[in-house]
Amino acid sequence: MQFSLAALALFVASAMSQAINISSPPSGQTVLAGEKLNVEVTRQNSLSPSEEVAIVIGVSSCTDENSCPSPSQVIQHVLYNGPYAAPHQNITVTLPSSLNGGHAVLSVTHFSLVGVSCVPSAGRRHLLISYD
Ligand SMILES: *[C@@H]1O[C@H](CO)[C@@H](O)[C@H](O)[C@H]1NC(C)=O
Ligand SMILES: *[C@@H]1O[C@H](CO)[C@@H](O)[C@H](O)[C@H]1NC(C)=O
């Protein structure tokens, strides 16, 4: 995990992060194991300049909506780890072919360098999906 050492510093800076949204899928979407899912990631406009580093899209499964692991603690399945074309990109990921439990938390973590002094920054969004 190349990012793990940097993660602490990134969290400190997260208050300054450029917020992203998961525009698709909608929260609560029912998906099929193994299917391809389009994840639409939108970055909000900001006055401060920023340089993109990467985003990570992941899912973690759970038996009910209240027991899903926190995406800030663990990502069971990393589905995408790569560049992000701001301010708007569709990324197609393939869902794991099996997950324990009927629910999962889908998360997008966004890494960027913010401002003229390039403050390392991380922001995160997540939503719950259901497995059919
Ligand atoms: C992101 O989501 C927030 C809250 O739902 C909304 O207010 C905001 O307009 C959204 N921004 C973008 C760029 O989609
Ligand atoms: C992403 O997909 C949505 C829905 O299919 C589409 O409306 C949008 O134009 C696409 N955006 C990009 C940047 O490809």
UniProtKB/TrEMBL annotation:
Signal peptide stretch: 1-19
A Pfam family assignment: Nis1
Keywords: Signal
Family matches, as InterPro entries: Nis1
Presence of keyword Signal: yes
Domain of life: Eukaryota
Protein's name in the database: Phosphatidylglycerol/phosphatidylinositol transfer protein
